Amino acid sequence: MRIYLDSDADLGLLQGRRIAVIGYGNQGRAQALNLRDSGLDVVVGNRDDIYAKHARADGFHVSPINVATAQAQVVLLLIPDEVTPVVFEARIATQLLPQSLLVFASGYSVAFEQLTLPSQVDVGLLAPRMIGAGVRDLYVTGEGFPAFVGVAQDISGQTLPLVLALAKGIGATRRGVVPVTFAQEAELDLFTEQCFGPAFGAVLTTSINLLLNAGYPPEAVLLELYMSGEFAYTLRKIAELGLVEQAALHSRTSQYGSMSRGLRFQIPELRERLRAGLEEIRNGTFAREWAAEQAEGAPTLAMLRAQAQEMPLYQLEQELREALGSIAAASPSTQSQSSSELSRRGPWSMLRAGIARCLQRLRRPRHPRSTPPTPRDRPPSEAPTPSEAPTPSLTSPLSDGQLRRTLQTFLENASCDPMLQAFAAGRHVTTYYRFTDVDLAFSLGFHDGHVVGSLGNETEAQVQLTLASITLDSMLTGTLSPVRAALSGEIVFDGDPRLAMTVQRIQKDLVRLYSQARRQVLQGSDNA
Ligand code: NDP
Predict the structure, then answer these.
(1) Triad 186, 127, 56: Cα angle to 5°
(2) In the chain, what are the domain boundaries?
(3) Edge-to-edge, what's the strand order for the sheet holding 450-455?
């Protein structure tokens, strides 16, 4: 195990070398201030806007990115990864002084070959394992924070000592600096974001839904699981003491319960999904997908963000947070703000009303029984005319046979629907739907202007959805958003998320065709 500390780094190596910090955002500001406070010569390169203004207010000399680059022996690239390739090619690559040191704070652009490195410069990595605010705060307190360091090009033979000196300058060697390759840094970072984090998020949201549906008070559920901060505190203790040692901080009941029940959650499928996610990162699939998504203006990201904000759970959280904030604001010292709704109704009643609204949304049956007036409810003068004859409700549950016939009709109609054919032009995407409760599966594909649907198994689909038949029925009758169903775990999703989101564009047409088919089948059943 190799960990570099203060004693392994020599700040003197940076004396006489000007450092240009490119970008003055989260990391840029924190690192620039720390390096200057460590006695180094720091300038800032930024566009002349609000960030530049902040840098000047902090006493830095600010110049355009190309100018700052051309004046420095060390260049720290601290702009967002998604803009790095373009900014680098346009304003940095040709301005770098020969023998200078170029330092990235993330391995992404180099590891996934998003840019071409000039051959005459050293290239290093200094990636704090800490957000920008923490980089500054923990430098000021003297505690420091961990970081990864690496070397991609070593022309001078001095790259690692220089990067370690920078690590010391920002305060990282006080805690410990770990050597990695650019690829390792980027892949670990993406794995945390794409696999570890979402898997944990799924456990959290599944638990919340389960407990709410079991009738526990929502404010108690959210506080218990994470909003009290107890869980975050435990994580801090795990970081400080280790997974096993921190167990001593919990009761013996807790220790026995979590260790004995923990065995039940060693699920092979979880490991398989994490492994598949890692593979997608390592073979560059994710980097290519993200580059293509950005080239189109990130429509999938926008759609996912919007859908996440519509989740009932998100809204419940907002209501709780606001209500809890209102309660804090209604402390004796601030209760004189009497004009607000808060003072009229009281914070707890607002909290309860908000929670009741959210719970209603969370618990609303996705397949509500319809209650059209029966003939007996109508006054005689309102007897239905033949054209008004009751049509089968979209919300009556389907038998397995009806579902099969509905899907058959839906797929037949879809294959000759002009709207779907127009959507299929220039595309190649097949979605495979597999039911968890009915022995049935089907696929719907869009290929070069042709719509191809069939019942049965499909192995070549780019998007695979595993779901209960009632979930599909709710989605295709328009009572449940597919993205919401996926985000809340009602659909197990596999495959290409961008292609899946593309199919969202014809959701209305799918609902139209499925609902028509469903009505036809139910009418046929009624007439039979
Ligand atoms: P920020 O989003 O905070 O960067 C903002 C800065 O980038 C501003 O100065 C902004 O200036 C500049 N910028 C943004 N777009 C452009 C553009 N198109 N052209 C030129 N300048 C631009 O980034 P972070 O500090 O979060 O991240 C910087 C690097 O640090 C990344 O490589 C990241 O992976 C890494 N990192 C980040 C961590 C974090 O916690 N944030 C942790 C560890 C590493 P303006 O818009 O005015 O041009």
Answers:
(1) 130
(2) 6-180, 188-311, 314-393, 395-527
(3) 450-455, 441-447, 428-435, 463-467, 491-495
CB-neighbour burial class of residue 12 (10 A; exposed 0-12, middle 13-18, buried 19+): exposed
CATH class of 395-527: alpha beta
d(CA 525, CA 397): 13
> What is the Cα–Cα distance from 343 to 193, expressed in whole angstroms?
42
Contact (CB, 8 A) for 104 and 77: yes
Ligand 1 geometric centre to CA of 172 (Å): 19
Give the pLDDT score at 340.
44
Query: Ligand 1 centre from 237 Cα, in Å?
Result: 30
CATH T-level fold of 6-180: Rossmann fold (3.40.50)
Q: Whose CA is nearest to atom 45 of ligand 1?
A: 47
Instruction: Please check whether residue 160 is in contact with residue 173, taking contact to mean a CB–CB distance below 8 angstroms.
Output: no
Nearest atom in ligand 1 to 86's CA: 18
> Running along the chain, 528 residues long, what does each successive block of 10 average in pLDDT?
96 98 98 98 96 97 98 98 95 97 98 95 98 98 97 97 98 98 98 96 89 89 88 90 89 91 90 96 96 92 84 76 60 41 48 57 46 36 39 70 96 96 95 95 96 90 94 93 78 87 90 96 77
CA atoms within 13 A on the CB side of 51: 20
pLDDT confidence of residue 247:
86
Compute, in angstroms, the gap from residue 128 CA to the centroid of ligand 1: 14
The whole-number pLDDT of residue 352 equals 57
Global pTM reads 0.78
Tell whether ligand 1 has an atom less than 6 A from the beta carbon of residue 144: no
Distance 82 CA to ligand 1 centre (A): 9
Cβ of 81 less than 6 Å from ligand 1? yes
Q: 5: which 2 tokens?
A: 């500390």
Residue nearest to atom 34 of ligand 1 (CA): 106
